[in-house]
Amino acid sequence: MTKARIIDGKGFALDLRTRIAAQVAALKESHGVEPGLAVVLVGNDPASQVYVRNKGQATLAAGMQSFEHKLPDTVDQATLVALVERLNRDPAVNGILVQLPLPRQIDPAVVIATIDPAKDVDGFHVENAGRLALGLPGLVPCTPLGCMMLLRDTVGDLRGLRALVLGRSGIVGKPMASLLLAADCTVTVAHSRTRDLAAECRRADILVAAVGRPEMVRGDWIKPGATVIDVGINRVAGAAEGKTRLVGDVDFAGAAEVAGAITPVPGGVGPMTIACLLLNTLTATRRQNGIAAPDDAEA
Ligand SMILES: NC(=O)C1=CN([C@@H]2O[C@H](COP(=O)(O)OP(=O)(O)OC[C@H]3O[C@@H](n4cnc5c(N)ncnc54)[C@H](OP(=O)(O)O)[C@@H]3O)[C@@H](O)[C@H]2O)C=CC1
Ligand SMILES: Nc1nc(=O)c2c([nH]1)NC[C@@H]1CN(c3ccc(C(=O)N[C@@H](CCC(=O)O)C(=O)O)cc3)C=[N+]21
């Protein structure tokens, strides 16, 4: 029997995208500016292709321009860097996303460092990462930004709550910890060297799992009534032969018995990532054009 409230990330994301679309339309009307997002996909990893397609559709649906660049997985680093430099100079491009992971011959740090920080809608550039760590304005990584929106909507006041972030990647775990700290949570970051992970998790009022291990977080690791945000996207074998299904990093059925609220996979954090990518593209476009956000804007 499920006890926890199921957090509707998909519904929240749809709503957010509707508000973004209205602001894009207003921006075109008032300033004649149309936000443009360039997505660069290297190779033909099927999962990445699905994300890129979904992002492209969502971009167009929000009234923004979408530019897709597909490169073969044999491409050399210099060619990819040259493409990013061209996108940096292109005035129609307000946001640049280079889909990760990249093939072995390419150093992701070099490519990310090439992106103009003002167009870095993933928030992965050291300048944006440093700004977030110092509490300065910048572009915030989409997945943690989306998690914070769901948390504020679910919990309300986060001040003083104990938060546990499981995972310390530069894409999810570290920026998530910075945002929770900025919201006055007491933050612990756990990783593969953490001792007695279950006990650390059990102390948390807010548990964010971004570990990439299918259903690793068990129901008895959860503090009763806690809010659980499951970032994990893991494809595992399904019930039927040859079929796969998506699961998170949390054992949903077990956790839902104990938690106060929990995000599902799919339909939780994933759709928020895409909505926040559009939000960051809108924010980047405004800043590049020196246009202030309206008072009622989301960000
Ligand atoms: N919903 C969305 O929009 C998105 C979902 N994701 C998903 O989120 C998950 C995490 O992604 P990402 O941050 O990129 O992953 P990474 O692989 O970069 O990082 C995983 C982190 O988990 C830690 N870890 C791994 N195994 C264990 C373990 N057994 N016990 C404790 N800690 C462990 C690692 O620790 P250490 O540092 O010590 O190695 C590392 O810090 C994945 O499932 C990914 O698919 C990612 C991005 C967006
Ligand atoms: N530079 C870069 N930026 C990223 O943000 C980035 C990336 N590289 N590489 C891959 C990861 C993963 N990621 C997801 C985005 C949306 C869903 C999503 O929409 N998921 C849906 C459905 C997914 C499905 O059904 O296949 C859901 O969870 O409900 C998932 C995962 C962004 N990533």
TrEMBL record:
<dbReference type="GO" id="GO:0004477">
    <property type="term" value="F:methenyltetrahydrofolate cyclohydrolase activity"/>
</dbReference>
<comment type="function">
    <text>Catalyzes the oxidation of 5,10-methylenetetrahydrofolate to 5,10-methenyltetrahydrofolate and then the hydrolysis of 5,10-methenyltetrahydrofolate to 10-formyltetrahydrofolate.</text>
</comment>
<keyword id="KW-0378">Hydrolase</keyword>
<feature type="binding site">
    <location>
        <position position="233"/>
    </location>
    <ligand>
        <name>NADP(+)</name>
    </ligand>
</feature>
<dbReference type="InterPro" id="IPR036291">
    <property type="entry name" value="NAD(P)-bd_dom_sf"/>
</dbReference>
<comment type="subunit">
    <text>Homodimer.</text>
</comment>
<dbReference type="Pfam" id="PF02882">
    <property type="entry name" value="THF_DHG_CYH_C"/>
</dbReference>
<feature type="domain" description="Tetrahydrofolate dehydrogenase/cyclohydrolase catalytic">
    <location>
        <begin position="7"/>
        <end position="122"/>
    </location>
</feature>
<keyword id="KW-0368">Histidine biosynthesis</keyword>
<comment type="similarity">
    <text>Belongs to the tetrahydrofolate dehydrogenase/cyclohydrolase family.</text>
</comment>
<keyword id="KW-0486">Methionine biosynthesis</keyword>
<dbReference type="InterPro" id="IPR020631">
    <property type="entry name" value="THF_DH/CycHdrlase_NAD-bd_dom"/>
</dbReference>
<keyword id="KW-0511">Multifunctional enzyme</keyword>
<dbReference type="GO" id="GO:0009086">
    <property type="term" value="P:methionine biosynthetic process"/>
</dbReference>
<dbReference type="InterPro" id="IPR020867">
    <property type="entry name" value="THF_DH/CycHdrlase_CS"/>
</dbReference>
<dbReference type="Pfam" id="PF00763">
    <property type="entry name" value="THF_DHG_CYH"/>
</dbReference>
<dbReference type="GO" id="GO:0000105">
    <property type="term" value="P:L-histidine biosynthetic process"/>
</dbReference>
<dbReference type="GO" id="GO:0005829">
    <property type="term" value="C:cytosol"/>
</dbReference>
<keyword id="KW-0028">Amino-acid biosynthesis</keyword>
<keyword id="KW-0658">Purine biosynthesis</keyword>
<dbReference type="GO" id="GO:0006164">
    <property type="term" value="P:purine nucleotide biosynthetic process"/>
</dbReference>
<dbReference type="InterPro" id="IPR046346">
    <property type="entry name" value="Aminoacid_DH-like_N_sf"/>
</dbReference>
<keyword id="KW-0560">Oxidoreductase</keyword>
<comment type="pathway">
    <text>One-carbon metabolism; tetrahydrofolate interconversion.</text>
</comment>
<feature type="domain" description="Tetrahydrofolate dehydrogenase/cyclohydrolase NAD(P)-binding">
    <location>
        <begin position="141"/>
        <end position="288"/>
    </location>
</feature>
<dbReference type="InterPro" id="IPR020630">
    <property type="entry name" value="THF_DH/CycHdrlase_cat_dom"/>
</dbReference>
<dbReference type="GO" id="GO:0035999">
    <property type="term" value="P:tetrahydrofolate interconversion"/>
</dbReference>
<keyword id="KW-0554">One-carbon metabolism</keyword>
<feature type="binding site">
    <location>
        <begin position="167"/>
        <end position="169"/>
    </location>
    <ligand>
        <name>NADP(+)</name>
    </ligand>
</feature>
<protein>
    <recommendedName>
        <fullName>Bifunctional protein FolD</fullName>
        <ecNumber>1.5.1.5</ecNumber>
        <ecNumber>3.5.4.9</ecNumber>
    </recommendedName>
</protein>
<dbReference type="InterPro" id="IPR000672">
    <property type="entry name" value="THF_DH/CycHdrlase"/>
</dbReference>
<keyword id="KW-0521">NADP</keyword>
<dbReference type="GO" id="GO:0004488">
    <property type="term" value="F:methylenetetrahydrofolate dehydrogenase (NADP+) activity"/>
</dbReference>
